Amino acid sequence: MTTTTRDRAVSVLPPSYVRYYVLAALCAITAINYIQRNCIGAAETTIRADLDLTKEQTGDAMAWFFWTYALFQIPSGWLAQTWGPRRALTLYAVGWSLAIGLGAVATGLTELIGVRLAMGALQAGIFPCATMIMASWLPPSRRAFASGLLNSFMLIGGAVSSMLTGFLLTYLEWREVFALYALPGIAWAVWFAFWFRNRPRDHSAVNEAELEVIAAGRVDTPRTSPTPRKRDAESERAESVTTAPPHSQPHSTEAEEKQERETIAPDVRRLPFWAIFLSLPMWLIGIQQFFRAGANRFFDSWLPTYLQEVRGGSVLDAGMLSGLPMWAGVVGGLAGGWISDTVLRHTGSRTAGRKGVAIGSLLIATLCYVLAYPIADARLAVLMLSAGSFIGTFASPCAYSLTMDMGGKQLGVVFGTMNMAGNFGAWAFVWIIPRLVKWWDGWDLALAVFAGVHLLAAVCWLALNPRGIIGGGQQTTPEGASRTNF
Fold it and tell me: Least enclosed by CB within 10 Å: which of 61, 128, 278, 457?
């Protein structure tokens, strides 16, 4: 078969669907991650009794997780950029799974805190890695939905963790449950290391049609002095079997330029860290994440207490009702991602598809929270809060996908910076709410702060220019385009 005939045969093949398996793998490890992370909450009373601890001590052990989780966002993102997400995520998944397994042999508070510190540091890398993978494996017009899907699996993992841990504790000791939870993460990491490839072109199951789908909407810029990266034998062999260029390349210079576009990262140069941290878009993205992530902690941290103290609900009723906003957020993440991507495809504008959807969702969510306040019936009030959670969660995939759109070669650091800000916001909101309640002698001020931070997040989005690359100026790419290595 001549080269021309082979090229024509390959070109009519439908796209392979490896990118969807990659996304499914990320959803699976996200759920596993949150099950392992949150199981200590469901087992808290059992652990406290067994280790003879106080409630304050177990609370401190759980809280230490968020400090290392926040502080290691940027280092873990940098390591993912240096090693590649395949090796980095494999290391992280094995590490945090071993950490939860070691929790089974904890004999006191010190060991328990050590386990939580290690888990926070190692789990910090999951979303910088996942974001880099989605940026390489998905076209820009599908990234918000994929981000919403990950957000939903975060919430599902957290909800499943409480139910599954409670069920297992009726048959097993808490130490056995911790040891059992280590196994899925290790098994996933071993499979992922063998199956996954950082670049779609290097995966043996990806065909040329799928590469074209992934490349849609991207802009590839070669380096000023072509120095193609040396490719390993596995990559060369896989490409020779599974892919072919869409046309013949009679000139060696054209072949070199094509390989250069395929092997380099999207930007002309890797920006220094200071350029990212001094970038106004980076600050605005981080501050909106601080406010949104902080406000979200109201539902899983303080809403049950509010319903019992103010609305007169029982412990059971408060627990059941408090879950509704979180399940609404599961659906809201998917809906918001789909809406953001749809608007982006139809307008070609990040301003409309990312910024506009986020601002609209935050404003409508704030209105729902304000309307919920005067409703006397607790169930109806929580339903209104759930409507606000559903719509407000639209902003989450907008933020995640915008870091992919604007992250460039420093995507791991950009996303890590945003997520670090969000985790500090989560800690700050959980810490300040009971103090506001005590200072104001009631929940009114705390509820006003909860609603108000959504408006502050909307203001950050309003001031944000979604064009270009963070730290690299605002003229780097067209508004609807993205430059990412594939």
Answer: 278
